[in-house]
Each structure stands twice: as structure tokens, then as C-alpha cells.
Amino acid sequence: xxxxxxxxxxxxxxxxxxxxxxxxxxxxxxxxxxxxxxxxxxxxxxxxxxxxxxxxxxxxxxxxxxxxxxxxxxxxxxxxxxxxxxxxxxxxxxxxxxxxxxxxxxxxxxxxxxxxxxxxxxxxxxxxxxxxxxxxxxxxxxxxxxxxxxxxxxxxxxxxxxxxxxxxxxxxxxxxxxxxxxxxxxxxxxxxxxxxxxxxxxxxxxxxxxxxxxxxxxxxxxxxxxxxxxxxxxxxxxxxxxxxxxxxxxxxxxxxxxxxxxxxxxxxxxxxxxxxxxxxxxxxxxxxxxxxxxxxxxxxxxxxxxxxxxxxxxxxxxxxxxxxxxxxxxxxxxxxxxxxxxxxxxxxxxxxxxxxxxxxxxxxxxxxxxxxxxxxxxxxxxxxxxxxxxxxxxxxxxxxxxxxxxxxxxxxxxxxxxxxxxxxx
Length: 425
Description:
disordered N terminus, elongated, 0% strand, mainly alpha
């Protein structure tokens, strides 16, 4: 193909990638004209250089198609997993691209799966938060080995019961893990199971983490026990049972008023919880204190013990210090040469996606031509050859090649065409 036609085709294929490409190609064409004159003197060296250039262009084309195909496959799997289409799917695709080029996830498919889980498990977040939530979930996975599915469910539970942004929810989880709240391997499960019980008693997300931290820093041998104690109290404090009424009265409260306060929830319920717990811890008679404690907290009072319960009573009501946990993880966890090199590679892949997208219609046209024209013609020719060669063998298996004027070489080709018919069996 003439050089000018090659450039025309290249411009048609890739000109839409960058408006400056056409001018660059034309400038290159003029420069190659000068190079051709020089090539006559340089000889073989110039031919080798031209071959390398052609090979490089071909390699870029192959890499572009491969990268774009992987991008399509990841997008398609995301659409299938979420049921998203149209504008919603575009949001998810944009999120996938951003998270991947930001250097999160093991692969593009890994990122697509993570975005899908965020979309399914955290339905109330905005499109702008999808990127933050996905990157946070992948960072927790890389750092603490929390699966994206479980961490997104926990973050969703925090948002559902206490409000706040997705980033705030993930920051609490990250800070809690850094501060040792997962010492019994139950931080995520505790958040999922007991957030609603904390919320009933008027706790904020910060308040829940402060109380969990107090229990963990004390003698609570299992984080689940701390959450279960809150669950038991949230149930018993409003059940109207004789034991609950007697327990409130023993502490000097009006049982009806207290149950009404706890049923109302909110800040008043949270204040009342700490009032009751501190009053209970001030009871001097240990036997009486334990009896009242079991009436209000069930067997969790016995399982946790007085020291852990005192620590919970002393829990801070201040904001739980996340200390920029996510930002700190991101700045340290991925601060290495391999991560940097991978980031550069992914930036290049983003360019290849665009080039591959431009090449796609031309490749599809070629495949359609192959399917509609070339393959049928080859099949027809093969069938015709089979009919001619079939005449070489009579029904009895005798070789009639010499009689039909079929030479040895053509006869061997016929034998291949007949795919196994043997005239000399």
C-alpha cells in the first residue's frame, strides 16, 4: 500500500483520538519524504528502522484492542451484576475507570466487581461517592483483609442507622481497626448486627465506636459481647416486664417514665442510658448490683463483668478520632516503587482504551466481511474440490486417477480434501 494511503487510513482510524493527530501525521509524512532520500545512502539500517517502526505500530494496535476488549468485558460484567443501564451504567463505568487509574484493585475486573458491590450494598450514596466508597473498600481489603462485600455492608449499616457520608463510615471502620477493635475478629459483624440497637438508644456513630473502644480496652474478651449487652438493654428497657420495672425502681427511677424515654430514642434516651448505667455501677451491694444488672443487661452483665461495664459507663461521648485513617492508609500502603510503576501502566492503558474504541468499527467490518464473503467462498471451493476428487475412487476402492488425468501431486491434494478416503486400502 502506498505511504499516502497508509497515512490516510491511520488518520481515519485514530484521528478522533486527538485532534492534533492528523497534523502530526502529515508533518511526519513530509519528514519521511526527506528520510527516504537519506535512506538511499543509509541502506539496510534504514530498512531495519522502518521495520521496527512498523512492528511498534502493530504492537500498539494489538495492545489497544486487547485493553479495550478487557474494558468492555469488565463493563459488561458490571452491567450484568447491577442491572444498570443508560446513564446509571455510565456513572458506574466512569467510577470503574477512575478507581482503576487511581491504582486501586488487582485488575480492571477486580475494580468492576468492587464497584458493583458498592452499588448493590450502598444504594443511598450519590454517584460522586461511588468512587470514594470503592477506593475505601479496596484499601480496607488490602490493609485489613476485609472483603469488599462485608465492608460495604458495614458502611451501609452505619449510614442507615446514624447518617453521614460513605467516606465517614469507612473512616470509622479504618480507625477502629487501627485502634484494635478487631481484636476478636468481629468488628465488621458487630457493626452489621448491632448498629440498629445502638441507634435505638440514641447513640451516634461516634458514640457507638467510643463505647466499643472502651469495652475493648477493658476486660471484654469478645467485642460481640459489648454489642450484645447494648442489644439486651435496648430490648429490656422497654419491654414492661416485672423484672425491668423492679430494676428501674431499685435504682430510684420511675419505671414508666424511663421506659417511655427509651422508647422515644434520640439524645434523651442516650443520656438516660448513661445515667442508668452509672447509677447501677454506684450500687455498693455487689449482690444487688449484679441482680439489677442481669435484669437490665441479661447474661451479658455476667459475661462482661463489672470492670468492662464500668469502662463502658466511662466511655467518652466525644467524636471518635479517625485521625484521617483512610488518608493515612492510602499514603503509606501504596507508597512503593511497584505501586508507582503499576500506576503509570494504568495511565497508559487508559489511552489504549480510547485507541481500541476507535479501531473497533474497522475490526468489526473486517470480521463481517470474513464471515459473509471469505468463509462461504472457501467452503464452496472446498465442496467443489471434494466432488472432483471423489471421482478418483470408484465404489470398489480402485484408484482411477491415471484414467482421469490426475497426477500424483494433485491426487495427494484430493486425498486430503476427501479427509480420509483411501483408494489404496
